[in-house]
Please model this.
Amino acid sequence: MSAGGRGGLHPWFFAQDTRPLLRLGPAVNLAAMHGGLPGPGYPYFPKSPDMGKMTDTVPYTVIRKAGDIEFRKYPAILLASVSGGAEEERFSLLFAYITGQNRTRTEIPMTAPVITGEKIPMTSPVISGEEVMSFVMPLEYTEASLPEPLDSRITVRKVPERTIATIRFSGTAEEKTVREMTARLLSVLEQEKITVIGSPFLMRYNSPWTPGFLRRNEVGVEVSGI
Model:
């Protein structure tokens, strides 16, 4: 069974390590991460007429199910990443990069997911412990063909093919719900004796303007041995 690609609800996708998510608190600049609507001048979600064109998602193949847990195989992808700083600053840098602020002035299609919380490997020039935001590059790009960023704070890396276990829920991703879904996912994986790699993360598939009852949220974590 395959999924991803074009179509469906607005595919804006967030993946965020649940631990940083639970530390966000009431910060106004991150209201949208908790389902709030951005106000005038809100920098995190650019009010662009092109937002509706962001219909690409990374394809995946469902390889196994265990109750409401889904195991998916994702292909190798390229990530453009920014570490440190405020959430809105990281997003703005990456959004500028894909909208033409690169060496070849190329506009790169917005591809879901937007990933927050996955750490850049220690071989990269970042300070350990800094949170990272990444945009997924369209699959047709290679490391050689991807436009070079103008801003040195943006790094590009390749993430190999991997398997991710997910659990899905609707509504807004409230802290309590995320905790419950994370505990439920990890409990099933422990019962199934499946090895977890890294920390769980939250995946959001919709823009902050999508009504809660239409939203698709998932908690996921990389696994091995499937």
